[in-house]
Amino acid sequence: MPAPDFDAIIIGAGMSGMYQLIRLRQLGLKARVFETGSGVGGTWYWNRYPGARFDSESYSYGFSFDKELLQEWSWSEHFAPQPETERYLNFVADKYDLRRDIQFNSRVTAAEWDEASLTWTVTLEGGAKHSARFLITAIGALSAPTLPNYPGMESFQGRAFHTAHWPKEPISFAGKRVAVIGTGATGVQTIQEVAKDVGHLTVLQRTPNWCAPLHNRKITPEEQAQIKASYDEIFRRCEETFSCFLHTPDPRATFEVSQAEREEFWEKLYNSPGFGIWVGNFRDMLTDRTANAEMSAFVANKIRQRVKDPKVAEMLIPTNHGFGTRRVPLETRYYEVYNQPNVELVDTRATPITEVTPTGLKTAEREFEFDIIIYATGFDALTGAFDRIDFRGTGGRTLKEAWAGGARSFVGMMVPGFPNMFMLLGPHTALGNIPRSIEYNVDWVSRLLGHMQAAGKQRAEAGEKGTAAWMAHVMDCARGLLSMEVDSWMTGVNRNVAGKQQRVVARYTGSAPAYREWCEEVAADGYREVALA
Ligand code: NA7
């Protein structure tokens, strides 16, 4: 039997694929990364839309595995913009000479397991095939963009972009009539940036989201020195918190304190940088309906104070879900955009978009003319990137078949029936501050591969029993969460995708420490739940 081309194939050269490549090299494994784009960075390569930036503190987001790298790189802002992050990831690629093992402009379309040779064969668009003993998916959790299905979309004569497929050349909005469809985290960042110099902006909003101020600013030289001296502490903090951010729930329950104390706390959170208002709030804010309603009322009043036209303010206040039950977009003068005379907010729930025309689009009541249409319409999240590749495991069974009743995984990283395949950020890994989850996933997979090397094992497959126990834990964690009662990518709903209309337990909602504890027990127990041969 011919030897496979590589020890391991990694799909994707975003942060997961890059770090995994570094770790595989340390194990002495010959690896090849296939990447659709022409550069490294994944999310930070594709999402070059205006205003794209971190909502995690920059210094909590970068790679933590190399102390030298931490000292070499200086973030310029507390929440870095996309161009800087893309530069950072290219800096990392240069430092570790990663590109020699990455094949760019190479989209993986299929991956098939062969039991006789214990190899995966990966097919690229264009037909080239490559084989490896191990297959590692580093394809992202929010990486398969989705568009609406309006009639006439192809007929539009102006320029139209999905935010995740933004062109590399600069786009000018000056004097242009621009539409933004979608008001999630991406739409909000885009809108506040485009509004700065647009001719006229129309925001087409189907569901308003609860947004909160980001409070970004430049990092001063003194802060820079302080940050570089505190990296151990910063990452220790990320390891301890619920979702790996610098913020974590307050131990108090909402009604344990007086109304005055509550207001004061919320005021402080509203005026503090980052995700504290979402993940550093009272511990029952996302589980207790009354507590959540109080918090929502607090934020609704902030919106009313910031938006001059009371009718527009009411349109921007969510009525079908409470604060924090969907991903909270962080903003910088987002609400003030609606005070500009050249900005209009259209409620597409009241008057749905019926078609795109060569010159703009139509709603049930009006016709609009645009030069540019921006689709900030989100992603087929969590499983979408997997659905786009034809994975075939033992007996030729496809991953789609295996997941027909909903995604099933063992600790988010393995799937029974798919031996020697490891998922980084697969369904049911801890999410939160994503690079922290990535580093943990990569380290866990790498340790398992090291264990296999040492034990002379060739084949690893997640067992049914361990998978069932893990999935039961995933389901348990989701019980009682108000977010489970709301449609969003976090509950697996995307109305632009067939088969994604129903809410499911799409992600792991326990804490990152609890996730790691489970995974560590598996490792400490000699990977008993993984069949090694
Ligand atoms: P999201 O959060 O999924 O937001 C997508 C937005 O697009 C949301 O406002 C949708 O409205 C809207 N949308 C989607 N399809 C349509 C159609 N057909 N018509 C009108 N409006 C539509 O994606 P983002 O990119 O903002 O953020 C995803 C994550 O990436 C984010 O949480 C960060 O963690 C990074 P809806 O709410 O469904 O009514």
How many β strands by DSSP?
20
Based on helices, strands and strand pairing, what is the structural class? alpha/beta
Quick one: overall form?
globular
**In which range does the helix fraction lie?**
25-40%
How would you explain this protein's 3D organization?
There is one protein chain. Helix 1 (15-26) packs parallel to helix 16 (434-455) and helix 16 packs parallel to helix 18 (512-524). The longest helix is centred in the last third of the chain and has 22 residues, at 434-455. The two termini are 19 Å apart. Strands 1, 2, 3, 4, 5, 6, 17 and 18 form an eight-stranded mixed β-sheet that branches. This protein has a five-stranded parallel β-sheet with strand order 7-16-8-9-12, with helices on one face. 32% of the residues lie in helices and 16% in strands. By secondary structure, the chain is of the alpha/beta class. The chain binds ligand NA7. Ligand NA7 binds at residues 142, 148, 181-187, 206-207, 327, 348, 376-379, 489, 496. Residues 142, 148, 181-187, 206-207, 327, 348, 376-379, 489, 496 line the site of ligand NA7.
Tags for this model:
533 residues, alpha/beta, eight-stranded mixed sheet, five-stranded parallel sheet, 18 helices, 16% strand, globular, binds ligand NA7, NADP, Flavin_mOase-like
